[in-house]
Amino acid sequence: MPLSAQETEVKNPPVSRPPLDPHLKALENEAIHIFREVAAEFENPVMLYSIGKDSSVLLHLARKAFFPGRVPFPLLHVDTTWKFREMIEFRNEIAEKYDLDLVVHSNPRGKAENITPFTHGSSIYTDIMKTEALRQALDAGGYDAAFGGARRDEEASRAKERIYSFRTPDHKWDPRNQRPELWNIYNGMIKKGESVRAFPLSNWTEVDIWRYIQAEDIPLVPLYYAAERPYVERDGMMILAEDPRLELLPGEEVQHGMIRFRTLGCFPLTGAIRSSATTLEEVIAELEIATVSERQGRAIDRDQSGSMEKKKREGYF
Amino acid sequence: MTAPASTIAASTGATILPFAESLAKAGARDMRPLRLITCGSVDDGKSTLIGRLLWDTKAVKEDQAVTLARDSGGQNDLGLPDFALLLDGLQAEREQGITIDVAYRYFATDRRSFIVADTPGHEQYTRNMATGASTADLAVLLADARVGLLEQTRRHATIAALMGIRQFVLAVNKIDLVGYDKAIFEQISHDFRQFAQGLGIRQITAIPMSALKGENVVFPAGNGAMPWYDGPTLVEALELATVRSAQAGGFRLPVQRVSRPGESFRGYQGTVSGGAVRPGDSVAILPSGTVANVKQIVTFDLVRNAAVAGDAVTLVLDRQVDVSRGDMIVSIDVQPMTGLHFDGHLVALQPGGIEPGKRYWLKSGTRRQRVMIEPVSQLELSTGNWLPHASTLAMNAIGKVRLSFQEQAIFDTYEQNRSTGAFILIDPDTLNTVAGGMITAKREDFGGIEIHRDGERVILSLPADLAEQLMATDIFLKRRNETEIRRVTAAQAVEFFSDAASDI
């Protein structure tokens, strides 16, 4: 029996944005396809939400994929407890605004053993507060698929990662034994205990992310835009100096300057760049002439070549 | 620290290189990204070529370049780092010095962006080449000017053609090492054109280049090195290539999921994989064959008045019909093939190969169903000939196969639609992807076994393949003189069956 017109009609908004250019549209279509495929084939998916710009794009695409329904899976934020204050505020606002199920997890060892990036070094700290915490949260939730915002252009070991990236029951990645991935036909069959990390942004580049944020008017944590902020210089990085837990070392002093962040992580491990870009247009203009890759601000990748691959094998996202 | 080009500066003291990418690059791109695959034999210089592409289009960031310089432990005689290190991302590869997997690279020019599937040249990794080729619009095939076409080069061209690639660039690399000899370039181009003709490839651009020196890759060769060549550089050729579109042909929407956010809305979500659709169009839902009209095309941004191939949409139909994931919504006048028996090509991807008679999972579009595979012949890659074959198709083998389903399957031929004509096979035990395949035809549905009595004799009518198997058994051979074999065509058989049916 036909439904009445009134019941099913979706109305156009009074003002709509200009259409995306074909390049971004193709990337958007691919991401939406991946979201829907995972949501349909897995029993209990979750989206890893890091609050950063890639996560913001990922969330926007998820909302598009399931419109007019709501996002049919929870968002998981692994909170190391050392995130920027503005990130946490932003996260909570977004979850409420878009009616999202937000799951926040912190490794209880952090508090129990007082593990901090200052006392334990970036490697051990990351291992416990990010990698181990993520495993705990995924196990606790019993998730069989986790969406992530990783892109293949970020880092050499990512260039070979599949869109559906398989994980053993103990969350290990075996880069040498990945399933072939042909066309856009994804094999979502897994055994009990195994899981999949799904990467809808695999084929996006950093420039694509920024242009999409601009075209779609996606809200971001303000730290991405330049502002006069307090910072200290440490190990060649500019560290934001607003959290009382940051203790100044001998010889260090708080300076003030126009800075912004290209990526957002844990504030003690994330370096700022000097910038006067206070608007999205200015950020993109900077990006176009920047010759330093975005992960450069991250202490994690710097130890040695292959460091990210090593972390991923061990279960880092 | 000053940075004249802008105010950006990394706090590590990194300096800004003296070039500035064109801001036009960030402007709207009026083309979809071109997906390409690079292939060729080991040592043809493939990694160097891709490294050169990334380097000259400024896709290599400064800190990556620093890591590169550090890891290569020195530079080559042109003062450039070892580009291959930039590409071989996995530690295992660095240790072995070979590329063992498909890697994806991204670069852009002012006019277009590109996604490169960088695949290994070693024969044992043919499966990875097939993987990379499955999504590619164009293949760049490398040949070393000093040695010409190798068997491996021909293999790769064959696989690429089989996977549906119709545009080729023949990169005659290391032309500097043969003294920029025009005759050598022309001989290799000629050889390839002749070979490609047999594969049905007509669109070939041959370019003489030196990837190491950067000649005819992004920039033309300078200093009068090749005054005899006035064709495009590699990047120019790539900018002009066309992106394959599935917009011609009938409308196809494999249903990914049914959206029911509330009682008042029911929409069918999926990516249009062929043709176009407008509100008001009549559509059929396969395999049931139910007919409905499209009422609305819903997206997050707006309700649209059309959707074309590639668009991820939500369709609302004008009546309540039974539609679920795995179904396909298609145009009513140009429908795909449905049936239980199809012919196809497939590439075996895993060490276990493809076993005849085993029941695999087949996934095509959003539909997953059980299938039996029967290999018919195997492609001899060195000659391009199909050889009769009935046993296991080993890893990296390319075979012609017959597919038999228990439930209705829905396909176009791969030639007609690269999306609804493609499938993967999943091993029911390991759940790994074990083959990629392409539908070539639907087989006539006279696969049934019929028995009827003719006086004292029993006439058993069997499909040809089954008859052959039966006739090969000992018990049959012993009683050979009691049987009569008639070979008939499919049309005759259909007639025969209908006659037989009316007799009973």
TrEMBL record, chain A:
Pathway: Sulfur metabolism; hydrogen sulfide biosynthesis; sulfite from sulfate: step 1/3. GO terms for biological process: hydrogen sulfide biosynthetic process; sulfate assimilation. It catalyses: sulfate + ATP + H(+) = adenosine 5'-phosphosulfate + diphosphate. It holds the Pfam family PAPS_reduct. Residues 44-271 form the Phosphoadenosine phosphosulphate reductase domain. Keywords: ATP-binding, Nucleotide-binding, Nucleotidyltransferase, Transferase. Its EC number is 2.7.7.4. Residues 1-21, 298-317 are annotated as: Disordered. InterPro entries: PAPS_reduct_dom (IPR002500), Rossmann-like_a/b/a_fold (IPR014729), SO4_adenylTrfase_ssu (IPR011784), Sulfate_adenylyltrnsfr_sub2 (IPR050128). It comes from the Bacteria. One of its GO terms (molecular function) is ATP binding. It is an enzyme of class 2 (transferase). The keyword Heme does not apply. The keyword Transferase applies. Heterodimer composed of CysD, the smaller subunit, and CysN. PANTHER family: SULFATE ADENYLYLTRANSFERASE SUBUNIT 2 (PTHR43196). Belongs to the PAPS reductase family. CysD subfamily. With CysN forms the ATP sulfurylase (ATPS) that catalyzes the adenylation of sulfate producing adenosine 5'-phosphosulfate (APS) and diphosphate, the first enzymatic step in sulfur assimilation pathway. APS synthesis involves the formation of a high-energy phosphoric-sulfuric acid anhydride bond driven by GTP hydrolysis by CysN coupled to ATP hydrolysis by CysD. This is Sulfate adenylyltransferase subunit 2.
From TrEMBL, chain B:
GO terms for molecular function: adenylylsulfate kinase activity; ATP binding; GTP binding; GTPase activity; sulfate adenylyltransferase (ATP) activity. Keywords: ATP-binding, GTP-binding, Nucleotide-binding, Nucleotidyltransferase, Transferase. Its EC number is 2.7.1.25, 2.7.7.4. GO terms for biological process: sulfur compound metabolic process. Residues 31-247 form the Tr-type G domain. It holds the Pfam family GTP-eEF1A_C. CDD domains: CysN_ATPS (cd04166), CysN_NodQ_II (cd03695), CysN_NoDQ_III (cd04095). InterPro entries: CysN_GTP-bd (IPR041757), CysN_II (IPR044138), CysN_NoDQ_III (IPR044139), G_TR_CS (IPR031157), GTP-eEF1A_C (IPR054696), P-loop_NTPase (IPR027417), SO4_adenylTrfase_lsu (IPR011779), T_Tr_GTP-bd_dom (IPR000795). It is an enzyme of class 2 (transferase). It catalyses: adenosine 5'-phosphosulfate + ATP = 3'-phosphoadenylyl sulfate + ADP + H(+); sulfate + ATP + H(+) = adenosine 5'-phosphosulfate + diphosphate. The keyword GTP-binding applies. Gene3D superfamilies: P-loop containing nucleotide triphosphate hydrolases (3.40.50.300), Translation factors (2.40.30.10). Sulfate-activating enzymes, NodP and NodQ, may be physically associated. APS kinase catalyzes the synthesis of activated sulfate. Proposed to provide activated sulfate for transfer to Nod factor. ATP sulfurylase may be the GTPase, regulating ATP sulfurylase activity. This is Bifunctional enzyme NodQ. It comes from Neorhizobium lilium. The gene is cysN.
